[in-house]
Amino acid sequence: MNIVIIDGHGGSLGTQLVKSIGTTYPGADLTAIGTNATATAAMIKAGAKNAATGENPVIVACRYADVIIGPIGMVIADSLLGEITPAMAVAVGQASAPKILLPVNRCENLVAGLGDMNTTALINDAMEKLGRFM
User: Considering the entire predicted model, what is its pTM?
Assistant: First the structure.
């Protein structure tokens, strides 16, 4: 099972996902893609064995992913303060893999109908949803 984690900014959400998936599903094959070098480095430090940075790695990783996990902004062009290019958003959106989108209410993208969950609660919910595919 190839799980692709996409994150930007400082990579704190991706870092927590890498750690949680590694603990909850130790046999999972993780690919961490940062939209910038800082996010990628943080996910590598958290334990990601496969990692890359930038637009083309997002596009390529989405072709081979069994599941894609990251902030909801990864499917919205120009989100994450402009770190998500239109090509990235299209690649994620058109990927045949199921997507687990964490509703992070930041960067002018607000998700209606959801209570404010802290990051720990979001990660726990993501692990439960990922378990459906494992």
Answer: 0.90
Residue 13 to residue 25: CA distance in whole angstroms: 17
pLDDT tens digit sequence for 79-94: 888 999 999 999 999 9
Which residues of the chain are modeled with pLDDT < 70?
A: 105-110
Closest CA to 62 of 38, 45, 85, 79: 85
Residues in a beta bridge with 67? 3
Q: Where are the alpha helices (DSSP H) in 1-134?
A: 12-24, 37-45, 55-64, 79-82, 86-94, 119-131
How far is the CA of 131 from the CAs of 11, 16, 26, 59, 100, in angstroms? 23, 16, 12, 25, 11
Sheet holding 29-34: strands in order across? 50-53, 29-34, 2-7, 67-71, 99-102
